[in-house]
Amino acid sequence: MSILETNGVSKQYRMGEVTVDALAGVDFSAEEGEFIAVMGPSGSGKSTLLHLLGGLDQPTDGEVALAGRVLSDLSDNQVTITRRRKVGFVFQFFNLIPTLSAEENIALPLLIDGRRPREYRERVDRLLELVGLTERRHHKPDQLSGGEQQRVAIARALVTEPAIVLADEPTGNLDSRSGDDILKLLRQLCDELGQTIVTVTHDPRAASYADRIVFLKDGRIIDEMRLEGEKDATDILARLTELEL
After folding, report:
1. Least crowded by CB within 10 Å, which of 72, 77, 91, 127?
2. What is the tens place of the pLDDT at every residue in 143-159?
3. How much is the pLDDT for 15?
């Protein structure tokens, strides 16, 4: 069952007298519990697609359906609520609140949604355990390593029990060891919790953790690659070379 779907999505931007086609007629879908990597060169439309999927921006043409709701049919307030409750975001630069502790950062989306602390205490505890930060719960971001901060960001993305997690270069600001730990955690979320994840990445090794790779070029999906059995970044690199990406 598709939890996320686009139908003929296009996005144009005006830059002075010039119209730029960031996306051109993209059809995309994500099944429940699927881990998808989106790859392509700079300017191919990867981040634009991610923003449209999460309701952070609106397409010029076409439709985006999230958890069975077509976003263009909703009011701005309804889109905001749907995004808040159905989508978890993980960014390259963590985007944690520096004055809040790890557990307070994780709980922040629930506070914004008007929920009471006693209603979410158990869930925050479970997430801290899941990402291996129970002993660091009271630490603020500047007291955590980059990898630990990204683990907090992932737990924050999961706290509302979203239909989908969207990750924009989640390992791009980490060393290779911390990056591998984050990728293993994302893979675990799919395998054990059935979490749907769509991540944008330029790294074949990061993409090798996915179930499927979507290749973008000039705002269009030009190919897909399903990963089964032993996953190898070498095969992905070969496909990128073949597609001239």
Report:
1. 77
2. 999 999 999 999 999 99
3. 81
